[in-house]
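FORM 12-B: Structure-to-Sequence Request
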């Protein structure tokens, strides 16, 4: 029966050859080297013009390598990736007032190496932070940097920094997978990399054609209806007043939950025909509802943007955020709310091709330079697109300690402070062998470290609560940790015993006898003792 089901599925899939009509090319061919930008790239280019020194859209990852390394082979492997993926040798000069993406026919990658045998951990972290925050020049490039630091012959740190305009997390997973295979070939391990069927410039044309079609108009009309009217602005309680202009200064906190709780959340998802993504998103929206008291909640969430199979092995900026709107006005039980979120997510993913920047242009939301338009918080569930590199998802969170093997190359993620935040809050999750891991990226202009830590702790309590009692109304789900509950109880416990056989004036007289010189009344700088009173 499985082969019959597969046949029916294949019959329902559109002919991809009709979708992608432009064949890929190789470096040096007569394929045009200039192309317009996608809608998403135009947004990033525009933001770069506003803040060219900002590192808010730098993607950075650092890994430790505890084995002997063939450095020339590693450099050749990276050069092979640059030759294979045109996005890695693309720059963005302006032609008049309009930017274009120009693919360089050849870009020689320089692997920056440095011996650091005597560096302390503090020195290493400072270097990684500084390098990850160094801005890129979009017009001149290159838009990726690779640095190799060596403590000894068997201990190295590899840092990769790339601008988001040419890559996304899916792209980094593709690069990591291919890098491992290419580098492994230097040790005699056989490998093959199939030719790429299309290029990123083919995706540019595909997106343009789609947006100009009836299907593009249908999807855009869906969002016009879904986000009609005055959109709510999420009013989170912050530690400081919001700056007039968004600075993108950020930091991160991390949380891991047990495999047992992860299993309970998966079971709850299955009971409601939902995915783990939907359940975690619903929990995050409940958290925001409880913090703000607002029942109309907008959360952004990125889609991979690779709805066509031909794009799955490309490197480029495909990711596109969608807007997920939640209605908690009736204080529903969490299970009922999860059913609502499930339907919202399914509809949103069925209309995911509309670029967010185009959505902003059509909706004309009220602009505030201190906030991001339409939504101010984001939720992400990181999943590696390649089956044998699942640990890359935890690497995307920026947490230290994730270990994985890349075709014989043992790697361990290194956590270092990344001082940028694109939104007020971004909650990212990834499933690991030890349960779910979370990172909370927060805007440092708005929140203190202790506040962001408390947000994660209360989110964990909320997950534990809804996993046990999903039929509890969302406004009543416990969120406070036991230590916080003890503080609340202690501070509000005003119960005291008083003699029941004496009147009030008799109790006052007794107090006078015990402490006549104690101050009883203070008023405008004057004090009266119990004895005087």
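FORM 12-B RESPONSE
SEQUENCE OUT:
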């Amino acid at each position: 029966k499985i082969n019959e089901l597969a046949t029916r599925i294949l019959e329902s899939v559109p002919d991809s050859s009709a979708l992608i009509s432009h064949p890929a090319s190789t470096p040096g061919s007569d394929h045009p080297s200039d192309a317009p930008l996608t809608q998403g790239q135009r947004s990033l280019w525009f933001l770069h013009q506003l803040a060219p020194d900002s590192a808010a859209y730098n993607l950075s990852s650092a890994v430790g390598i505890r084995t002997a390394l063939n450095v020339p082979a590693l450099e050749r492997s990276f050069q092979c990736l640059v030759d294979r993926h045109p996005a890695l040798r693309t720059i963005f000069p302006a032609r008049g007032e309009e930017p274009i993406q120009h693919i360089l026919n050849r870009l020689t990658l320089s692997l920056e190496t440095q011996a650091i045998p005597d560096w302390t951990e503090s020195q290493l972290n400072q270097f990684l932070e500084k390098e990850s925050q160094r801005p890129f020049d979009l017009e001149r490039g290159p838009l990726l940097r690779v640095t190799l630091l060596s403590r000894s012959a068997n201990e190295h740190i590899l840092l990769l920094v790339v601008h988001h305009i040419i890559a996304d997390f899916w792209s980094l997973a593709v690069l990591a997978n291919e890098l491992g295979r290419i580098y492994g070939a230097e040790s005699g391990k056989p490998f093959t990399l199939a030719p790429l069927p299309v290029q990123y410039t083919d995706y540019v044309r595909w997106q343009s054609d789609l947006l100009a079609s009836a299907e593009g108009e249908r999807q855009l009309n869906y969002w016009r209806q879904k986000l009609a009217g005055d959109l709510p602005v999420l009013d989170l309680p912050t530690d400081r007043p919001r700056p007039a202009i968004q600075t993108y200064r950020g930091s991160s906190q991390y949380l891991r939950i047990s495999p047992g709780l992860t299993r309970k959340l998966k079971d709850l998802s299955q009971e409601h025909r939902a995915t783990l993504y939907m359940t975690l998103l619903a929990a995050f929206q409940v958290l925001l509802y409880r913090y703000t008291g607002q029942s109309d909640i907008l959360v952004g969430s990125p889609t991979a943007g690779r709805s066509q199979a031909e794009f799955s092995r490309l490197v480029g900026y495909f990711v596109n955020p969608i807007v997920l709107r939640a209605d908690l006005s009736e204080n529903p039980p969490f299970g009922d709310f999860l059913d609502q979120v499930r339907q919202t997510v399914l509809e949103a993913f069925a209309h995911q091709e509309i670029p967010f920047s185009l959505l902003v242009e059509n909706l004309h939301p009220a602009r505030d330079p201190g906030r991001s338009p339409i939504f101010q918080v984001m939720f992400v569930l990181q999943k590696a697109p390649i089956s044998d590199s699942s640990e890359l998802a935890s690497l995307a969170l920026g947490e230290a300690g994730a270990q994985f093997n890349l075709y014989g190359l043992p790697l361990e993620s290194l956590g270092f402070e990344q001082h940028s935040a694109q939104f007020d809050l971004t909650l990212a999750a990834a499933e690991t062998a030890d349960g779910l891991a979370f990172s909370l990226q927060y805007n440092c202009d708005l929140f203190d470290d202790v506040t962001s830590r408390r947000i994660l702790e209360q989110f964990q309590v909320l997950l534990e609560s809804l996993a046990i009692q999903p039929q509890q109304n969302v406004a009543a789900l416990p969120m406070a940790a036991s230590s916080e509950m003890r503080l609340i109880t202690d501070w509000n416990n005003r119960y005291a015993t008083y003699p029941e056989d004496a009147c009030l004036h008799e109790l006052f007289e007794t107090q006078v006898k015990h402490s006549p010189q104690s101050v009883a009344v203070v008023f405008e700088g004057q004090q009266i003792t119990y004895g005087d009173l």
